[in-house]
Amino acid sequence: MYRLHVVIPIGVSSPGTPIPEFLLNGIESLKEQTLDDILITVAADENISDECKQVLKDTGVNVEWFPEYSYFTKEGIWGKIFRCWEKYDSQYVSFLHYDDLWESNKALNQISFIEENNLDGCWSKVFLINDNNEITSGDSMRINELSANSVGYLIPWMCHSTIIKKDIILNCGILKYREKWNCDFEWLYTVFLHKIKNLKKCEEAIFLWRQHESQVSHAQGINMKEENDHVKEQRELVGYSFNKTMEDSRYVMENINLEQIKKLYK
């Protein structure tokens, strides 16, 4: 059993992505972690560029291959993350977008914090970085503890920086929505962290969130106009239309009882 399993999902969300240099930076930031026994898995679509495939070969990371154009399937990139988590034995799990970075002590500090405080998981500080890996902000993760007031808000920095016990996240009920969560996963994941409840912020760990010109958030990608030829082509290839995506999104929103979760904090 691995101590921690981190999954990096990659696919061609827009022409020219993933950017090989950023992918290499992201993988290296995980390989430089001071925590022992980390499994790094790249969940890669088969149609990524030859340059990205060479990065995967050169870094020697574990690779799980998925069909091309999976970005716009019903499960999206998030399904790839969970399928990789399910496949390998680990105590803790997390994920990393290919263009973001972890500070070298992030994994060790967060897992130590979880175990010292008898938690199920925790998130970290979040600093913004630019194309040159330069920090451009102070700590942007302002929430230290979960509360009724934060239930139902999209807090992507929280879910992206969280390390959590594998059994807890796999058995919390979120997988009920895996066929419909494509464009709402970050919101849904944050909601289920509130449902799990036993999480806090670790002030000794740092997540680095990259902002760059080629950046496209998953929600933005899903909602691109149909006249975008790249998006239209992918939707046609996977047979998952924009209208069906929005229908599934409405289902997710209408079937989550936020008021019931808020009662956990009273």
Characterization of the model:
- By secondary structure, the chain is an alpha/beta fold.
- The protein has one domain: Spore Coat Polysaccharide Biosynthesis Protein SpsA, Chain A (Alpha-Beta Complex), CATH 3.90.550.10.
- The chain is about 40% helix and about 20% strand.
- Helix 1 links the parallel strand 1 and strand 2.
- The longest helix has 13 residues.
- It is globular and about 50 Å long.
Could you give a short description of this structure?
With 266 residues, the protein is an alpha/beta fold. It has helices at 20-31, 50-59, 76-87, 106-116, 156-161, 166-170, 185-196, 218-222, 229-238, 242-254, 258-262, and strands spanning 2-10, 38-45, 62-66, 90-95, 101-102, 121-129, 163-165, 199-210. The protein has an eight-stranded mixed sheet with strand order 3-2-1-4-7-6-8-5, with helices on both faces.
Task: Tag the structure with descriptive keywords.
single chain, 266 residues, alpha/beta, Spore Coat Polysaccharide Biosynthesis Protein SpsA, Chain A, 8-stranded mixed beta sheet
Q: Regions with pLDDT < 50 over 5+ consecutive residues?
A: 217-227
Distance between the termini: 37 Å
Q: What is the H/E order?
A: EHEHEHEEHEHEHHEHHHH
Principal-axis shape: globular
Q: How many DSSP E strands?
A: 8
Number of domains: 1
Strand arrangement within the widest β-sheet reads: 3-2-1-4-7-6-8-5
Number of alpha- plus pi-helical segments:
11
CATH topology: Spore Coat Polysaccharide Biosynthesis Protein SpsA, Chain A
Helix/strand/pairing category: alpha/beta
